[in-house]
Amino acid sequence: MGEGGEDRKGTSDERVVVLGGAAGAWGDTSFAAPQLLDSGRCDYIFFEALAEVTMGILTRARQRDPALGYATDVITMIGRDVSRFVEQGVSVVTNAGGVNPRAAAEALRTMSDQAGVSIRIAWVEGDDLMDRLDELGALGLAEMSDGSPLVTEPLSFNAYLGARPIAAALAAGADVVITGRCVDSALALGPLIHEFRWGPEDLDALSQGSLAGHLLECGPQSTGGLLTDWEDVPSWHDIGYPIAECRADGSFVLTKAEGTGGLVDVRTASEQLIYEIGDPSAYLLPDVTCDWRHVELTQAGADRVEVRGSRGQAAPSTFKACAQVVDGFKVTGLVMIGGRDAAKKAKRFGGDFIRRAEQVLAREGLSDLRDVDIEILGAESTYGPHARTTDTREVVVKVALHHDSRRALGAVVRELGSFGLVVSGLTAGGRGLPKPTPLVRLRSYLVPRECFHPEIYLDGKPIPYEEPLRTTGSATALQEALPTEPFPVDDAVELPLIAIAHARSGDKGADSNIGVRARHPDFLPLLRDQLSAQVVAGWFAHRIAGAVERFDVPGVHALNFVLRDALGGGGIASLRFDPQGKAYAQQLLDMPMQVPAAWLTHPAVAQVPEVEGAREKNRQAQ
Questions:
Q1: Best exposed site among 92, 205, 368, 533 by fewest CB in 10 Å?
Q2: Residue 188 and residue 84 in one domain
């Protein structure tokens, strides 16, 4: 591992610094880090562990036990392989510190001592704002979506810090850096700032380094995971975790370890590039405002994609901070119903169960349910008017309820079992009754960056650190809508969107993001003409409550859609089975498009059944 921050290889112009992403979420596989270590290629391995909803969970854990509040399994994985990290000279960076990075560092120290391994461990503090509510409330902060004032009693309140504290810890000689809340991509950018000495003015390099982090931060999602064309991915059980070979100019190659499953190509990289980014011309991060509209992806060999072309603008004048607020309780029950007319029985069961719930609440003198969400999984209820299969003989019914009282929900779910004596074919699989849990809402704010003074500790001792001055300039949205030219289709055939595009979706708070990439540049003008924001809003009218925005990403021949208020509150505030919109892209890919018949023989058209059906119909007509 590096000592005192000295360069370990050659000059900064010539070196290639290799990063490995070993975790895309708290609960990711324990096989990833050993796989990356087995490759023998990494200078740094980082573990991403914090989703927006995780902070509230960790805060409750710390309230129960002051020694908790961090992602214990990630720290355990690092501790298990600590000897191998040292032997290979691999430095480790993780945000698994959660709301208690000091405790995480102490736990790792205990593990390394037990293994007889000497390492230097740093942790970063300064993101936790729970003790500063009065101070920040006086600033008149407004919630980003509705303008409401700062909440007074959040469960947690953390800001997204940047990469420079990580770089400073590495420069001080840390072998392992543990942070609390920071932007995910900072886990990769921090080592690159340290290695290549990028300053605040190196905006394009900072944007490229952030893009490397973006492509690695979700683990195997850039190496074949979530790919629309999933059948092209050889295997999932041994999927290769991502590696980035980074150069001083910011360019890098995305790849994976040899001999592993998964796939790295322009499709896997582009789907992840347009995943959960909002406006691609102004992706705001603490260290830089990224413009990824003109990123170039080039296949550079088997399982190798070269990435260039990211541009950077001045970092924003604020840091984003998110508060978790408890808003009553929710409970979710799942039952299976089998047999003829299963979907019809499920619909009746859902309605009758809610009527029973209302009777229980009235009898107990309790207030009404605040919200109810019923989904019949297997009968395509999430597809709304676009459902095709409604007569299946096997469905799962999800009933989710929201109430201010845990006791009220407990009384209601007690009635769930009685319906097993009423509805033919109903079973709960032998599970016990579901338990009410807090319903936690996310509230987001922009806090002036001068309010933040991160603190870094190395082996328990503070090290000097000051945030560098921000490069001046605008960090406002840069996107200029490109003109949409009509794309007339005279000899048209109807094909699903998946025939000419692939897509990926995810969440940002209560909003959903759907990135759609043309399978060939020839197809993009048609997509821009037919796939407008208004058309997408209409397709999801049964699921969204807000507007839809469309952004162009011409470098990868893509469109990015942001669906506002599209997830029933999102995260653990939502009562939906898909609270993060993970299936939205798959639903959109079934949208019918009017496509030139000549494209039926285009080599880039996906070989889906509808394409073959249209070809056969054309052959018969000739």
A1: 368
A2: yes
